[in-house]
Specification:
This protein is an alpha/beta fold. It has 2 domains: 132 residues, Rossmann fold (3-Layer(aba) Sandwich), CATH 3.40.50; 61 residues, Orthogonal Bundle (Arc Repressor Mutant, subunit A), CATH 1.10.10.10. It is built from 10 helices and 6 strands, in the order βαβαβαβαβαβααααα. A 6-stranded parallel β-sheet has the order 2-1-3-4-5-6, with helices on both faces. Helix 4 links the parallel strand 4 and strand 5. Helix 8 crosses helix 9. The longest helix has 16 residues.
Amino acid sequence: MSKIRVLVADDHDIVRYGICSALKSSADVEVVGEASTGKQAADQYETLKPDVVLLDISMPDMNGIEATREIIKKSPGAQVLILTMHLNEEYLNQVLNAGALGYLLKNADIEEMLSGIRMVAKGKQVFSSEIARLMTEKYIRTAQDGYDGTSVNIPRLTRREKEILQKIAEGKTSQEIADILFISPRTVDTHRANLIQKLGVKNSAGLVRYAIERDLLTEDK
């Protein structure tokens, strides 16, 4: 069985050592590199090409969000998972806009962290429960601030687009969506690209945020 190759970046040596030790306890994960700054992480990614980059946000030289942008700019297929102490809406928005697939808090236990790495390695999104609540609260605030459902700025989606958007937000791959909807993976990818353009987001992570903010994960739209 091939292992998931992970690059770990955290500026605190003790914290980084603890994370690496925890990851090394798993039979399907291999730590291939360590970095103490965002710049080191971005540079090492180019050399190591890991399956997943585990990044802290607060780092010298280049923070985790800037490092995410740099990594994905050079390698659009890079899978980045943020592991941070910051439960912060602004950071969350920046992380998603930068293209990271996940946002976990450092109070996560080992199994949650390993599960998050496995999901991100498959191209799926993952968020700590506290982050999911933050997203829900943001949606509720937006609704309470006076949205009356008549705004012309919200694009109209077809039923098929809504179905695919919901499945993307649930973390399903193109193949899984294709199997569920009885269409080809290529058709799913075409819809994904059209949704990204129509909704004005940058990537699949942006689609996830759009779906969560509009409560598309819990209702049959």
